[in-house]
Amino acid sequence: MPPQPANGSAEAPSTAPKAATPEWSVGSVLSALPTPLLPTDNASPVSFFHLLHRLKTTKREGWRRFGVEHGESIADHMYRMSIMTMLCPPALASKLDIQRCTKMALVHDMAESLVGDITPMDNIPKPEKSRRERETMKYIAETLLGGVGGGLAGKGIRDAWEEYEASETLEAKFVHDVDKMELVLQMAEYERAAKGELDLQEFQWVASRIELPEIKEWAEEVLKEGTELRKRVKEGRKDTL
Asked: pLDDT by residue (tens digit) across 7-45?
C-alpha cells in the first residue's frame, strides 16, 4: 500500500509537467566551465590553445568501468595515434598522404574538448552525438579560429575532422584503423600493468573491425602478447610479466 498523507486520504498524483532537460549546446558547456575561456582578440589563437587543455585533462571514459581511474586522456590517445601514422608500413604509405593522416589523427577527437568522451553506455543517440560534435567543430573553426590567418587554419582543422567522420578516403580509413589499433595497444598495456589482475578481453572485438591488412598485422602481434600474458598468469608466473 502506498504511503498516505496525514489526513488519511489518498494523495492525488502530481499533474505538474516535468522540467525538460535543456538541449546541449556549446554555449551551455562554456558557461559551466570552472575556468572560462579567456576572451582574446579573434586574430589570436590563444583561446583555442586554452581549449586544448581540456583534451589533456579529460579521460577516455571506456576504461573507467573497469576501475582504471587514472588512465589515458583524449590527448594521450590522439598523440600516439599521430605518431603511429608516421610509421605506416611502406607498402601502404605509398598510397597515402601521410601528412594528412597525421593531421587527421591529431584532430579526430577534438570535439571532445567540449562534448566529452561519449561511450555507448551513455545512451546518447548517434545523431545527437554527431550534432554536438559538429556544433563544437563549427565553434572552433569559426569563433575561436575564424580570424586567425584569414580562417584558413580553422577551416583546415574542420576539413580534416569532416574527412575522418565521412570515412570515405583511404586516408580516413587508415586513421580509423589506427584509432582501433591504439585502443588495442592501450588494452594490452593496462592488462600488463595490472599483472593479470585486470581482464579487458571485452575490448578485443575492436581488433576484428580493423580493415587494412597492414594494421591487422600490428593488432595480431599485440593480441598474441595478451594471450602469452594470460598464459603466464594461469601458470602462476606473474614475476615474469
From this structure: 443 444 445 545 456 799 999 999 998 888 766 667 999
Q: Classify burial at 85, counting beta carbons within 10 Å of its beta carbon; exposed 0-12, middle 13-18, buried 19 or more.
A: buried
Name the helix (H) or strand (E) containing 191.
helix 170-193
164-206 pLDDT per residue, tens: 999 999 999 999 999 999 999 999 999 999 887 888 988 999 9
Secondary structure percentages of the chain, helix, strand, coil, to 5:
65, 0, 35
Round to the nearest angstrom and report the end-to-end CA distance of the chain. Answer: 59
Stated pTM of the model: 0.86
Query: How many CB atoms are closer than 10 A to CB 176?
Result: 20
- Neighbouring-strand partners of residue 73: 59
The rounded distance, in Å, linking the Cα atoms of 143 and 3 is: 54
Residue 59 phi/psi, 5° resolution? -80, 155
Q: Mind giving me the DSSP string for 86-141?
A: HT--HHHHTTS-HHHHHHHHHHTTTTHHHH----GGG---HHHHHHHHHHHHHIII
Instruction: Specify the amino acid at residue 163.
Output: E
Residue-wise pLDDT tens digits, 89-138: 999 999 999 999 999 999 999 999 999 999 888 999 999 999 999 999 99
